[in-house]
Amino acid sequence: MTQTKTFLITGGAGFIGSAVVRELIKNTAHTVVNVDKLTYAGNLESLASVEGDNRYRFVQADICNAEAMSAIFSEHQPDIIMHLAAESHVDRSIDGPAAFMETNIIGTYTLLEAARSYWKTLQTNNPGKANNFRFHHISTDEVYGDLAENVGRIEQSEIRQDPQQPNLPLFTEQTPYAPSSPYSASKASSDHLVRAWQRTYGLPTVITNCSNNYGPYHFPEKLIPLVILNALAGKPLPVYGDGSQIRDWLYVEDHARALILVAQKGGIAETYNIGGHNEKKNLEVVETICDVLQDLVPKETSYRDQITFVKDRPGHDLRYAIDASKIEKDLGWKPEETFETGLRKTVQWYLDNKTWWQRVQDGSYQGQRLGVNA
Fold it and tell me: Distances from the Cα of 77 to the Cαs of 29, 113, 151, 364, in angstroms?
C-alpha cells in the first residue's frame, strides 16, 4: 500500500489550489491541510465538496506571518508542502504592485524559513520523515517573459522548436528569466529564493512553471470566465489590442494531477514545465467561447457581435508557449483535456453554477477593467 501523507497546501481556497485540494481528497487517501488568508480571490465555496471530510483541515492564516506558519508546521507535521498562495493577476499588479511584493516574495521567504526550521527538527527527531519531505513551489511561465523577445538572448542550441509550428520556439526549463510585469517579477523572485534555499541550506525543493490555467471555479477577473459571464449578460467582450497575444492553455484539473505527481515523484532541485499543448491567440479563445455558448445557449444574434477591442495593457507579452516534454518523459504526465473539450466543460460549469459566480460578482469583483493606471 502507498503510504499516506499529510499535504500542506498554501492558497488552497484559490483557483488552482482548490483544484489540488479537491483532487487529493477525492482521488487519494492523503490528508490535506489548507492554509489560506482568504483574500478577495479565496473562496471556501470552491471546497464545499470536501468540507466535513475527516482528512481535510482548513486554517485561515497569512503566509507572511512567521509565528503562524511555525505553529501550523508544528501542529500538523506535514510531509509535503505545496506552495500555491500568491497574488496572481497581472492587471492588478500594474495597479498595485506592493501586495505582490509582500505576498509573493516576503511570503515565500517566510514559508521557506518555517519549512527549513521544521525540516531541521525532523532530521533530528524523525530522519525517515525528513528524507521524504518536499517543498513544492508552484510558479508560472510568465517568469520567462515574452518568448518572441527572449529568443534573441538564447543560444540557438538551447531553443526547442514547437513540432507543430517548427518556426516557433518553446519555453524550456533552461529558458532565461526575463519577467515583464510586477506580477511575473515577483514570481521570478520567489523562484530564485526557493532555488537559493535548496542550494544553500539543502532544503529538498522542487519547482513547477505552468501555462495559463482555466476551468471550474476560476475567479472572473481572468479572461475566460470574464468573457463567459459578460457574454451571458449581453456585455462587451473586451479583447486587449488586436487579440494576437498567444498563450498555452492548461485545464486546471490536468494541472492539479501534474502538481500532485511532481510533489511526490519529482526530483529534488528539479524544475518541471507544465503546459497543455494548446497555443491559442486571445481573440481565438474569445471567439471559441462565443461559439460554444451559441451551441449551448443559442440566441438570435451572434455572441461574437459583443467582441470589443480595447487599449492593450502596458508591457503585454506577445507569446508564451511551454515545452512540457520533461515532465512527460521523466514522470509520465500528459494532459487529458484538449482545449476544445476543456473549454466546453468550463462553459457548462459556469452555466450550471450560477450561485457561485453571482456571489463573487455581488462581492469582491463586478467585472471592472483593471491594469489601466500605468
Answer: 17, 15, 44, 34
Q: What kind and span of H or E run contains 260?
A: helix 252-265
Would residue 79 show up in a list of annotated catalytic residues for this protein? no
Where are the domains positioned within the chain?
A: 6-218+249-279+316-339
pLDDT tens-digit series, residues 137-188: 999 999 999 876 554 444 443 445 455 554 567 889 999 999 999 999 999 9
Question: Considering only CA atoms, which of 67, 19, 73 is closest in space to residue 47?
Answer: 19
Of the CA atoms within 13 Å of residue 241, those in its CB half-sphere come to 14
Q: 141, 279, 317, 337: which is the annotated catalytic residue?
A: 141
- Which residues are registered as beta bridge partners of 60? 36
pTM above 0.90, yes or no: yes
CB 187 within 8 Å of CB 104 = yes
> Catalytic residue among 109, 118, 183, 350, which?
183
Phi and psi, residue 60, nearest 5°: -85, 115
Task: Give the three-state DSSP class for 237.
Answer: strand
3-state secondary structure of 259: helix
Are the beta carbons of 105 and 186 closer than 8 angstroms? yes
Q: Nearest Cα to 16, choosing from 188, 213, 194? A: 213
Cα separation, 164 vs 225, in Å, equals 28
Name the CATH topology of 6-218+249-279+316-339. Rossmann fold (3.40.50)
Q: Nine-digit cell at 216?
A: 471550474
Residue found under cell 511551454: 322
The pLDDT tens digits of the residues spanning 275-322 come to 998 999 999 999 999 999 999 999 999 999 999 999 887 878 788 889
Active site includes 183?
yes
Cell numbers standing for residue 357: 459566480
**What is the maximum alpha-carbon separation in the chain?**
70
Q: Would residue 118 show up in a list of annotated catalytic residues for this protein?
A: no
Q: What pLDDT does residue 153 have?
A: 45
Output the CA angle 317-83-222, nearest 5 degrees.
Answer: 40
- Of 79, 87, 91, 142, the catalytic one is 142
Three-class secondary structure of residue 279 per DSSP:
strand
Residues in the chain: 374
Locate cell 524544475: which residue?
Answer: 271
| Residue 79 half-sphere exposure toward CB, CA atoms < 13 A | 15
